[in-house]
Amino acid sequence: MRAAVLKQFATPLELADIPRPAPGPGEVLVRIAASGVNPLDTKIRAGLAAHARAVLPAVLGLDLAGTVVEVGPQVAGFAVGDEVYGLSGGVGGLQGSLAEYAAADARLLAHKPASLTMRQAAALPLSVVTAWEGLVDRARVGAGQKVLVHGGAGGIGHVAVQIARARGAEVFATASAADAETVRQLGATAIDYAGTEVQEYVAAHTGGEGFDIVFDTVGGTVLDNSFAAVRTYTGHVLSALGWGSHSLAPLSFRGATYSGVFTLLPMLTGNGRDHHGEILREAAALADAGLLKPLLDPRRYDLDTVAQAHAAVEDGSAHAKIVVDIGSAAGS
């Protein structure tokens, strides 16, 4: 099968013919239709993501959507011909989705939302699992809460906005002036992060009390701002990028709580993989109910132009999710 292979860090991916895998116990063989490209994929390629534990030579690509063509032993719930999506590889020695086929752990997959194309489905897994683990698993988001999403038009952020709204929360999101309308169309109140100080938007939208949940999808100083924006006593700060050194004093003085989200753990350790499948099933139900839809960059890429897809993510020209078409069934 054809695949884009990383042979050395900080070098371009190389197209190669490699053996087509066979599904082992608990695995299904998926003919891949589309592969989502995340900033993490580009960091892995550059050798800047030691936490992802990529083993060279590697086929990258975290997100996939495709069709089951073979079912290994000890697999229940999937059959040949099923359309599936998932966060199933590209780290920790697991083959990624920039290939024509992948043998994937069935626990990491779910049936593709019927209302979405393969391309749309391939845009969701990493973002939806990260957002769900933070908002639902850690913070128990629900009706009556005010939720602030930092980076509301980003890959994780725009999904987090939709999940929080689907669960009844009132949602606010920081964004650039250029992305404010996108955030509003998702159903959130847009906050111009460049032109508004933390104290100003906390006062304007919460009467100075702070937000019940603050989800940082940006990292760095944005996490520090999150500690200053959360509600006293009952507030909960979440971060998918809490990897730096930060003062906990602002959070501690509020008596609030913090949770880090590290979505790769089940793939790296083998523990908790069933829950990834559960999240994807819940997300599929939301999508089919019209409550969750990814934002896609209109540019089209395939295995021959995957380097351009990575470049579009790295240079900031992508204002929505980049997806690589692997097969003819990728759709619009």
UniProtKB/TrEMBL annotation:
Keywords: Cytoplasm, NADP, RNA-binding. Residues 10-324 form the Enoyl reductase (ER) domain. The keyword Cytoplasm applies. It is found in: Cytoplasm. Gene3D superfamilies: Medium-chain alcohol dehydrogenases, catalytic domain (3.90.180.10), NAD(P)-binding Rossmann-like Domain (3.40.50.720). The keyword RNA-binding applies. Homotetramer. This is Zinc-dependent alcohol dehydrogenase family protein. It comes from Streptacidiphilus cavernicola.
